[in-house]
Amino acid sequence: MMLVWLILIPFLGGLLAWRGETWSDSAPRWTALASMLLVLLVCLGLWWVGDYRPLVADEAAAPRWAMEWRLAWIPRFGIEFHLALDGLSLVLVALTGLLGVLAVLCSWREIDHGVGFFHLNLLWILAGVIGVFLAIDLFLFFLFWEVMLVPMFFLIALWGHSGPAGRTRIRAATKFFLYTQASGLLMLVAILGLVFAHHASGGVYSFDYAVLRETPLSDTTAMWLMLGFFIAFAVKLPVVPLHGWLPDAHAQAPTAGSVLLAGILLKTSAYGLLRFALPLFPEASQALAPVAMGLGLLGIFYGALLACGQQDIKRLIAYTSISHMGFVLVGVYAGTELALQGVVMLLVAHALSSAGLFLLSGQLFERLHTRDMREMGGLWDRLPVIPAFTLCFVVASLGMPGTANFVGEFMILFGSFPAVPWIVAIATVGMLLAAIYSLLLMQRVHFGRAREEGRLAGPDRRETAMMLGLLLLVLWLGLYPQPLLDTSADTVADIERLFGETDTGRDDSSRAQAPVEGR
Amino acid sequence: MSWLLPLTFLLPLGGMLALVLWRGDPGRRLCVAIGVGSAGGAALVTAFIVTQFLATPEPHTVTLWTWIAVGNFRPTIGLALDGLSLTLLGVITGVGFLIHLFAAWYMHDEPGVRRFYAYLNLFVASMVLLVLGDNLLLLFLGWEGVGLCSYLLIGHYHQVEANGRAAFKAFIVTRTGDVFLAIGLFLLFHQLGTLNIALALERVPALWAEGDPMVELAALLLLAGALGKSAQLPLHTWLADAMAGPTPVSALIHAATMVTAGVYLIARMHEVFLLAPGVLYLTGVIGALTLLSAGCAALAQTDIKRVLAYSTMSQIGYMFLALGVGAFEAAVVHLMTHAFFKALLFLSAGAVIVGCHHEQDMRRLGGLWRRLPLAYAGFIAGGAALVALPLVSAGFYSKDEILWRALVSGQVELLAAGLLGTFLTSLYTLRLIVHTFHGEPRSENARQARPGHGWAHAVPLILLVLLSTFFGAWVEPPLAGVFPEPDEGSSLGHTLLEVGAISIVLSGLALGGWLLWRRGNWLEGPSAQGPGAALWRLWYHDWGSDALYDRLLVQPYRQLVGWLRDDAIDSLVTGVARLAWWSHLGLARTQTGQLRLYLVILSLGVVLILLVLAVGV
User: Fold this and answer.
1) Peptide bond into A387 cis (omega under 30)
2) Is B99 left (phi over 0), alpha (psi -120 to 50) or beta?
3) Cβ–Cβ under 8 Å, residues B284 and B325
4) Is 80 exceeded by the pLDDT of residue B570?
5) Which of A7, A472, B236, B594 falls 20 to 30 Å from B472 in CA-CA distance?
6) What residues have CB less than 8 Å from B188, skipping those under 6 apart?
7) What pLDDT, on the 0 to 100 scale, is given for residue A60?
8) Hey, what's the torsion of the CAs at B282, B287, B289, B290, to 10 degrees?
């Protein structure tokens, strides 16, 4: 029942916040804050009482859940309201709760019209995302997948900022909606195809994850169905030729929208790959792996090169997300335990660091009323504290050791190296490009000669608390990531077992001390 | 007493945190006190550790916690102390403390002291982790940490755009090396199954035979990382520009400690390099080439700090040469003495620069020896050590050992480069001192030079002067048992080599003295016109390496970024949408509401269909 509450709290909180507007402008804010804090607390409670450590030598085929809740919904088609929680979903739900709190806090002063409806949308996005992380009935998963989109569309379209050169917020919202809607359609087709394939073999309809995992599929069917899932997730991750929605949506969205997009919505697709694409179709995924990793490489470089060329600070950060997600894609399809743990780590790290950067650019926008970096420069002398925070998050985003991003990135690279040394060697060059775009941001915005005189207001207590909290998390996970790694270890071991055993040439014995000649 | 070891990095780290987190303005005096105090504390702790280690020279490790544990990937936050890391630790905290102290004088009337000391303390903490880390990932943490601090401190005067560019360049060029180092770590972990340095080095000889392509590759990747940090060819271009930072920073980071991290890395991993003779030889060749090219570049510079920067590259070239001939101990000893005398030279240069109202162009200095006696003494002692003046200077003993090892190893070409290098060194050092301190003052700033005062100015200089003379040669690093014992060679050969080297140094000094004193401004003629001028310009621009990289790498990269700026792939996708919009516009135009047009189109369509059918049948 606790799992249902995780979804219901933000859902009901949203309704309450919407109605609360009639009392005062601050009522929706406090309601939203309280509900997200509650979600976060519930997650921490679940983490505290639950046991997510991997059980050694357990080769059970069925996924193991720490918690499960099911209710018949449309029995005719075998559709259930089926939620379940394991270490991976717990980590991501907790992350959603945290970034939800930040999203509410950073809108405190920025949003001054339609406050109630804004928070309704905000909380419903979060409810949808939490649903995505918890649903293990594929129909329900698809439902939540779509639920995230509509409120996000409104968030960008109604409270977004319009940029120059025809980059209006409406256009950005429409683009976002079309891309994700089309990809969702592909996923629906793939889900239905899988269900029908299962029906053809067993004679029963079921949308249940554990049941569908056992579906025998021919190689071609598996490949087509997997591609349906992969493309749907690839749009959202985003993988490079399908990334067009991301820079516009990130740049034109209000700060809270950017934080949620970069911090959470991108993660749903990585989660989808880990939870569905790999375990449901291990052989087909294995066959796709070289292509997927190639696309990951393309993303790393394409995103980084474009980030270097941006003038708009939020577009720059948006493109860095593409680059970082390229590492995620490489790690997912390398499929070793170390790489997959690194993926989980990088998901969390990127959520924290990109949220920090978007929050900071929101704070800059509130003070300077521009996002154009050509109009900034020399802010170190005019603005207290915020430049120092920016430095910290920029340094995290370039993967400085001691930050969570380093741990994630390097675990992916260390873990993937035995499988694909050349791809890892090329991906490592991305480290250099990350340094270039990160320092360019610092150089253009905060260093150099000040364009104008006059000091700007430093961060107030709310802003300082947000940044400090995020920074402490980034450093904590950078220096002692073990609590998080232990939580997700069981899920990752399960994925690695399914994905890894399809591949005969890459079992653990090859990791033992043999030269890698001839690869 | 295992809790002492972590204090060496925790104290500076704590100093940094105190400076950063202090609410409100702590004031200049408190900032200096925290910054210098924490560095001093680290030096004091190190002194304790040294006395302990000398009493019982037992290498030991202190593991604080396990950093990451997934499968057999288990790097720790653990510190390992042995003779090599202790030597480096002593240099970092000892020389580091003196420089912190001197900086209190140097920065006495400049803003941003809090930021300055916070970065400086963070640097010391990272550098300590670099040398004490018991596994390669922690070493990499320190490695990147010092790079970051170097970036921040080079750009300390960030209001000037050029400084920002210099800092950026330094970070990017060194990170190019770091990319290779990272790949090297991936390879080593994959092959050896551990990142723990001691364990890895134990497994190396069992896994690889000498000359195995895999070990050569691993050594090559490590070497590339070392080249970036230590400013050796071809990743050397950043160091001269890095002089944009405050002079104490140049002394600490870009002379005494960080730039020698590459030497430390290779010495630390020497088992790997010994199995890779090809790469080891390459190390020596790169060192030799760098020491010659940087020596020539130093001859033509006009900025005091840039002369010193090129001389640093050249001296690190000697260390690489020593590593290349397998004389690891000689390299580390030279690292230590170089830290003493180059820190001294930079601090003295700092005294000159502040004394002359931030004038650092030698063409506008001169005649300062009377006005700035302490700085002059520093330059004399440091310069003597730099040129390896026989018997009295510390540099003589360490450099002599390197040349001797090169001879014993039989690599005559490296020896020849080293000897030629000593000649260049004496020339540029003499030129630096004569132009700065002798002759007539050539500007108002030089005429009105004010000597520094106060013990923060004097104590570091005096101590470093002592360490740069033969007293420094008495400091014997506890390196017994760390490196394989070198061949002894014949003592007659050693004596002959010493005589040869001394005569080269003296002849260099004599030639320099003759040119600079007896012939006055004679040199200005050939270096201002004709082929001499071209050579001079080439040397002044360090053989044109900046221009080359600009043409080869920076411009193409910028062009690529420019082409991609508008996201070509996205434009393709939105192109589809635009196509739909245009076809909508085109088709909408046919919707005129005129019946006759519709009829014409209708009948044309009918005719077309009939035609197609007729042809098709």
Assistant:
1) no
2) alpha
3) yes
4) yes
5) B236
6) B136, B195, B200, B218, B272
7) 56
8) 140
Could you tell me the two tokens for A111?
Answer: 């949003």
* Residue type, position B512, single letter: G
Q: At what angle do helices A386-397 and A404-416 cross, to 10 degrees?
A: 10
CA dist., res. B617 & res. B610, Å (int) = 10
Q: Does the structure show a pLDDT above 90 at B576?
A: no
In whole angstroms, what is the distance from residue B400 CA to residue B418 CA?
10
Find the mean pLDDT for residues B24-35: 87
Report CB contact under 8 Å: B187, A378: no
| pLDDT tens readout for residues A169-209 | 888 898 899 998 988 999 999 999 999 999 988 888 889 88
Q: Are strands B60-66 and A67-74 parallel, antiparallel or unpaired?
A: unpaired
Q: Which residues of B touch A380 (CB under 8 A)?
A: 158
User: In whole angstroms, what is the distance from residue A317 CA to residue A355 CA?
Assistant: 10
Q: How many whole angstroms separate alpha carbon B4 and alpha carbon B130?
A: 17
Which residues, 6 or more positions from A232, have their beta carbon under 8 angstroms from its beta carbon? A183, A184, A186, A187, A190, A269, A272
Calculate the CA B583 to chain-centre distance.
61
3-state secondary structure of B592: coil
B168 vs A contacts (CB less than 8 Å): 439-440, 443
The closest of A266, A399, A255, A281 to A322, measured between CA atoms, is A266
For residues A508, A512, A517, A519, the Cα torsion angle rounded to the nearest 10 degrees is 10
CA distance B333 to chain A (A): 30
Amino acid at position B48, single letter:
F
Provide φ and ψ at A398, rounded to 5°.
-85, 5
Residue of B nearest to A408 (CA): B68
CB-CB neighbours of B500 under 10 Å: 15
Q: Rounded CA gap, B461 and B377, in Å?
A: 9
Cβ-defined contact of B172 to A240 (cutoff 8 Å): no
Has residue B490 got a pLDDT over 80?
Answer: no
* Amino acid present at B36: V
Residues B248, B251, B253, B255: what is their CA dihedral angle, to the nearest 10 degrees? 170
Cα A197 from Cα A223, distance rounded (Å)? 13
pTM for the structure as a whole = 0.91
Helix axes B455-468, B373-386, angle to 10 degrees: 30
| Integer Cα distance of A243 and A245 in angstroms | 6
Report whether pLDDT(B177) > 80. Answer: yes
Give the DSSP H or E segment for B131. Answer: helix B113-132
- The DSSP-derived string for B317-347 is HHHHHHHHTT-HHHHHHHHHHHHHHHHHHHH
**pLDDT at A508 (0 to 100):** 42
pLDDT interval class at A514 (50, 70, 90): very low
Q: Nearest 5°: phi and psi at B62?
A: -125, 115
Quickly list H helices, A309-336: 313-334
Residue of A nearest to B186 (CA): A414
A411 touches chain B (CB under 8 A): yes
* Beta carbons of B162 and B135 less than 8 angstroms apart: no
Q: Quick one: how far is CA A456 from the chain centroid?
A: 33
CA atoms of B128 and B134, how far apart (whole Å): 12
Strand partners for B133: B79
Separation between Cα atoms, residue A268 and residue A146, nearest integer Å: 12
Which of B297, B302, B425 has the alpha carbon at shortest distance from B365?
B302
Residue A262 carries which DSSP code? I
Of B151, B152, B560, the CB nearest to A305: B560
Where are chain A's structural domains? 293-519
Of A115, A155, A97, A126, the closest CA to residue A30 belongs to A115
Token pair, residue A409, equals: 């990135």
Distance CA A155, CA A125 (A): 10
A487 within 8 A of A90, measured Cβ to Cβ: yes
